[in-house]
């Protein structure tokens, strides 16, 4: 993603925009990456020492092709417009390509500046868009050994709940995430920070995960905000048909949590999940909201409009005070925006 406030440049052309704009990163607090990690964390092997990335640079021949850039959202009843930055509509193919290039450039910038890149991912709703990132032509451009990978949400498996799965390794608990992303770069050595499953209660698992994050902040292994919250370089989030973001479920008490960094969420007959809380999510330097599919069109439209109840649309509470949110939409997810004839640059169907 073009991770800066200047990412979505306006254009008067009525054709898909192509460009080779370099990543314009944002300023972040300095944080050194320690060579050792807490023994309480479940991690993949560590590789190289910190410092500037020595990996092959990303080829400069890449051209971004945008279906459209949303400049303003108009209220149908009044015609009043709310101008928005950082909402881009792409074909599914270009969305995957653009996301990969933007992540690579941001990671290179963070590694050059601080020696590490902290990347928090939700489960399958966002990981499905990372296929290009681990493709052979791109993976050599990434210094994976300096990546720290965290979970925004994670299914919690504890005693008394699905006991047979309790002692399975992370690879089997999250087959899609590992098969499509992490296993493809496992030998390169990114840190994967996870929770301890050998616990007896769901909140115990959340408390253990929070303790790991707090220790990393105190020890300087993870950057922090001015009020001491963990500050991830990039958080990748998706959205589902009911407008939930990760495990932030509409009209759920988790939306009101202000003290904990991590907590558990149990909704109706669904399996329990651990999730980072809104204050921690909103402490991120950059958040990428990646949404695809016609079934999410209503949720996307309502989340970008003013006036709707935040409790029913968790995406509306994703608003970093000192960070940026970038929306990556495919044509189906953005279809209601077009249907309402809202102002959009470069509107053209492929």
Automatic annotation (TrEMBL):
Signal peptide: none annotated. GO terms for biological process: carbohydrate metabolic process. InterPro entries: 6PGL (IPR039104), Glc/Gal-6P_isomerase (IPR006148), NagB/RpiA_transferase-like (IPR037171). Gene3D superfamilies: 3.40.50.1360. Pathway: Carbohydrate degradation; pentose phosphate pathway. Pfam families: Glucosamine_iso. Residues 92-327 form the Glucosamine/galactosamine-6-phosphate isomerase domain. This is Glucosamine/galactosamine-6-phosphate isomerase domain-containing protein. It comes from the Eukaryota.
């Amino acid at each position: 993603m073009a991770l800066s406030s200047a990412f979505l440049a306006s254009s008067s052309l009525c054709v898909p925009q192509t460009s080779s704009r370099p990543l314009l990163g944002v300023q972040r607090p300095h944080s050194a990456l320690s060579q050792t990690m807490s023994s309480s964390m479940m991690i993949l092997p560590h590789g190289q020492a910190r410092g500037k990335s020595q990996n092959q640079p990303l080829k400069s021949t890449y051209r971004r092709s945008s279906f459209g850039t949303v400049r303003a959202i108009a209220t149908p009843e009044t015609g009043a417009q709310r101008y928005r930055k950082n909402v881009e509509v792409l074909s599914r193919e270009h969305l995957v390509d653009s996301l990969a290039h933007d992540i690579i450039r941001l990671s290179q910038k963070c590694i050059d500046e601080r020696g590490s890149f902290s990347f928090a991912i939700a489960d399958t709703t966002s990981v499905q868009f990372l296929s290009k990132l681990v493709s052979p032509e791109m993976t050599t451009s990434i210094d994976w050994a300096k990546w720290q990978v965290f979970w925004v949400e994670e299914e919690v498996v504890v005693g008394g709940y699905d006991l047979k799965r309790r002692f399975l390794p992370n690879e089997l608990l999250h087959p899609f995430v590992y098969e499509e992303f992490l296993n493809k770069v496992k030998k390169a050595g990114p840190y994967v920070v996870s929770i301890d499953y050998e616990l007896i209660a769901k909140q115990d698992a959340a408390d253990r995960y929070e303790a790991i994050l707090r220790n990393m902040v105190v020890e300087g292994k993870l950057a922090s905000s001015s009020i001491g919250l963990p500050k991830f370089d990039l958080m990748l989030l998706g959205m589902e048909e009911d407008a939930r973001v990760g495990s932030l479920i509409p009209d759920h008490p988790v939306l009101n949590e202000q003290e904990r960094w991590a907590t558990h969420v149990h909704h109706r007959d669904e399996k329990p999940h651990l999730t980072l809380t809104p204050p921690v999510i909103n402490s991120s330097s950059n958040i990428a909201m990646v949404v695809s599919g016609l079934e999410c069109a209503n949720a996307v439209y309502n989340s970008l409009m003013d006036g709707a109840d935040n409790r029913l649309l968790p995406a509306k509470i994703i608003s970093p005070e000192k960070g940026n949110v970038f929306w990556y939409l495919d044509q189906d997810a953005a279809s209601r925006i077009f249907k309402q004839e809202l102002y959009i640059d470069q509107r053209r169907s492929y």
